[in-house]
């Protein structure tokens, strides 16, 4: 309440000290008119004496008046030269007055920065005004208020139904909003995968289950393949998992054996349609549309959430001086209730201030750098970036060779190799990818220190390189599998369009690779937590006298590394959901397990990183990385659906050359008028004007964003001028008090 009163007082003081000008004359006349027609504004009106009490010479000494006078002189001289001098019109005055009146009528009283007594007075005035309105207007007012109250109550009820609400609040209270944003992001991925699974279940799995278990009066439609050689339809499913007991473990970890011909993988859905009583359900089209639906839903959901964080980051793009002030006066996280986390927040603020000072030092160093030093540092950066590219190329080549070796040797009979060898062959690509993801961040962290960047840019560049490394490894694996599927020299390959001998149902085998990556990633997370973090915590706690363990210390809960891990798993889910329809359900269970494992690890084994993230910055960064993962996942899916021939031995697309062919075949069954409309929309004659319109809309929003940015700059300048006016007034008041004291003495 005191803050609101001080804000209103400061605003009144600022308005009282404005010099006489046409805008102030308009405000005075508009104030009188509005006060007579709207009593609610009378309580907010300013005393007219405040405009006449200060002398004019005193007002002209204010810094804000001098700045406005300089700008006005510049604008007037420029407009006189251009002949575009404009005068305020009465229509503009009435329009602005109407906007202010309408804003007062429509907005809630709680939005005004007033004290409680003034808000009560406004509420009484509004209730008095209600009596003089018509019954229709009264009903609209009451219904609007009732609807707003209902929405507020519904939002309060939904907050109690949030998943892990108490756990996340407890984490926020103990460790701050930065770490809390990671667990909120993990909850978002759980909900996203659950919705994706529900889409696939309702569209693809439910009709098959209803028909197979005779729940409805429906039957499967199996259309024999035409113009397809019988050799291309051979699909020998291995049954070696029934021989040895440990083969069940291998099948469970790799998706082979008894899991291969289940609802988990693409090959089980060898159905052309489901015939119900009144219609025929086109399963191939539904399968393709479910994939497009979950990708579009993920894109819209991520963009919607990331826009909110982008707005906050855009507002917070302050100057360096404002950054220092915000860290000192507004940098504290009031959600912290733990003493150790309070100390950690103090050290984090000190680290941020040191980082800002270091960035300022580097910025000054760059300004004073000679041409020879510039050439030397850029040459060094070029050499180090070549090393980074060489490391990435080596990792990609290792993944490529491991994938080829695994694919060529995994077809051996299981009785010819022992349990460990078989498991190693199956998981060789996953092991190489995990090692690459573990080693490359260490190398990148060492290299970045020699590139002479600012601390903030060092963190962003290292994270960007790690993001590219983690997500590109999945694409390398998928493209390597695609090259093996489409490249062969045998007659059977030319006959079927793909390597039918090695990959009779290549979609299922790609789904098995994604399944293995998902399972192995979960195994690594659990193993690191149980066999690395917990023993490390015990040794550091109970053997603290040893210098080796003191230097080792506890494991840091690094937010960027953990985020990259779950984004890596989500990218696998997006790619593999087409080849393994139940993979989103497995990803949902996996992220639930990770939530509890990471929570226990944070509370008992890890310590928060001294480099803390703001919640708004963290959310935007997380969603940006997730959006990059989604874009990378769409590329191999699009190529596999549009370019690689579909399997002729399994799956719902056995009667199509590619997966995408089901779309033009479905369009051909439409009426002629609808076909003409669809072909017209997809033609170049429609695409070129549509692209131009989209570009114009984009340019409009870019210009609008630039205008908003200029308004933000003007508001910041106004705040700076207001603070300077306050300092000037305080200085004058101090001088006046000193003169008065001297006179009395």
Quick structural overview:
The protein is mainly α.
What does it look like?
- InterPro entries: TMC, TMC_dom.
- Keywords: Membrane, Transmembrane, Transmembrane helix.
- Residues 505-616 form the TMC domain.
- Its main location: membrane.
- Pfam families: TMC (PF07810).
- There is one protein chain.
- With 745 residues, this protein is mainly α.
- It has 27 helices and five strands.
- It has a three-stranded antiparallel sheet. A two-stranded parallel ribbon has the order 4-5.
- Helix 15 (371-409) packs parallel to helix 18 and helix 18 runs parallel beside helix 22.
- The radius of gyration is 34 Å and the shape is globular.
- Residues 1-56 and 82-106 have low confidence and may be disordered.
């Amino acid at each position: 309440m005191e803050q609101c009163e001080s804000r209103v007082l400061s605003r009144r003081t600022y308005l009282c000290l404005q010099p006489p000008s046409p805008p102030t004359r308009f405000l005075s006349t508009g104030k009188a008119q509005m006060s007579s027609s709207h009593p609610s504004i009378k309580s907010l009106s300013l005393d007219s004496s405040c405009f006449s009490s200060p002398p004019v010479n005193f007002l002209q000494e204010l810094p804000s008046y001098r700045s406005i006078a300089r700008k006005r002189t510049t604008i007037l001289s420029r407009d006189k030269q251009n002949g575009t001098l404009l005068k305020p019109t009465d229509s503009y005055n009435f329009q602005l007055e109407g906007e202010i009146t309408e804003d007062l009528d429509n907005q809630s009283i709680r939005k005004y920065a007033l004290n409680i007594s003034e808000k009560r007075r406004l509420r009484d005035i509004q209730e008095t005004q209600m009596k003089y309105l018509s019954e229709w207007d009264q009903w609209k007012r009451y219904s609007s208020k009732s609807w707003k109250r209902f929405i507020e109550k519904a939002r309060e009820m939904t907050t109690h139904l949030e998943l892990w609400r108490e756990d996340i609040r407890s984490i926020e209270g103990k460790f701050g909003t930065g770490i809390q944003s990671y667990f909120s992001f993990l909850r978002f991925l759980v909900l996203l995968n659950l919705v994706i699974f529900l889409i696939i279940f309702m569209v693809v799995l439910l009709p098959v289950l209803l028909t197979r278990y005779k729940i409805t009066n429906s039957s499967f439609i199996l259309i024999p393949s035409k113009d397809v050689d019988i050799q291309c339809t051979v699909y020998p499913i291995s049954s070696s998992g029934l021989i040895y007991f440990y083969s069940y473990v291998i099948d469970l970890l790799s998706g082979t054996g008894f899991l291969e011909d289940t609802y988990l993988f693409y090959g089980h859905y060898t159905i052309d349609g489901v015939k119900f009583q009144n219609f025929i359900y086109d399963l191939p089209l539904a399968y393709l549309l479910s994939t497009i639906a979950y990708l579009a839903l993920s894109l819209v959901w991520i963009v919607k959430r990331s826009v909110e964080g982008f707005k906050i980051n855009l507002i917070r793009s302050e100057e360096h001086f404002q950054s220092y002030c915000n860290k000192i006066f507004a940098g504290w996280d009031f959600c912290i209730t733990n003493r150790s986390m309070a100390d950690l927040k103090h050290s984090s603020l000190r680290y941020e201030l040191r980082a800002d000072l270091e960035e300022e030092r580097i910025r000054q160093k760059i300004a004073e750098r000679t041409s020879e030093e510039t050439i030397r540092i850029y040459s060094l950066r070029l050499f180090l970036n070549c090393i980074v590219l060489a490391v990435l190329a080596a990792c990609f080549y290792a993944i490529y060779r491991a994938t080829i070796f695994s694919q060529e040797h995994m077809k051996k009979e299981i009785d010819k190799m022992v349990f460990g060898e078989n498991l190693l062959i199956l998981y060789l690509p996953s092991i190489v990818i995990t090692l690459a993801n573990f080693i490359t961040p260490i190398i990148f962290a060492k290299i970045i220190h020699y590139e002479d960047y600012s601390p903030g840019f060092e963190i962003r560049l290292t994270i960007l390189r790690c993001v590219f490394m983690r997500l590109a490894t999945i694409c390398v694996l998928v493209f390597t599998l695609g090259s093996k599927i489409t490249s062969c020299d045998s007659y059977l390959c030319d006959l079927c369009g793909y390597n039918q001998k090695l990959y009779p149902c290549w979609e299922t085998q790609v789904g098995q690779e994604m399944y293995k990556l998902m399972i192995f990633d979960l195994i690594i997370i659990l193993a690191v937590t149980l066999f690395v973090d917990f023993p490390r915590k015990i040794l550091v706690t109970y053997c603290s006298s040893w210098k080796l363990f003191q230097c080792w210390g506890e494991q840091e809960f690094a937010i960027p590394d953990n985020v990259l891990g779950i984004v890596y798993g989500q990218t696998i889910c997006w790619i593999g959901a087409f080849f393994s329809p139940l993979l989103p359900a497995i990803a949902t269970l996996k992220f639930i397990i990770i939530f509890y494992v990471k929570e226990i690890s944070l509370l008992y084994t890890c310590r928060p990183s001294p480099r803390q993230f703001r919640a708004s910055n963290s959310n935007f960064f997380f969603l940006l990385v997730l959006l990059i993962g989604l874009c990378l996942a769409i590329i191999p899916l699009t190529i596999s659906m549009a370019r690689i021939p579909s399997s002729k031995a399994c799956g719902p697309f056995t009667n199509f050359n590619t997966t995408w062919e089901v779309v033009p075949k479905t369009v051909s069954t439409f009426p002629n008028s609808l076909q003409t409309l669809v072909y017209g929309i997809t033609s170049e004659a429609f695409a070129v004007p549509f692209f131009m319109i989209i570009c114009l809309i984009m340019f409009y929003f870019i210009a609008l964003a630039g205008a908003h940015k200029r308004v933000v700059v003007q508001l910041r300048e106004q705040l700076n001028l207001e603070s300077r006016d306050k300092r000037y007034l305080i200085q004058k008041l101090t001088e006046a008090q000193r003169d008065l004291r001297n006179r009395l003495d």
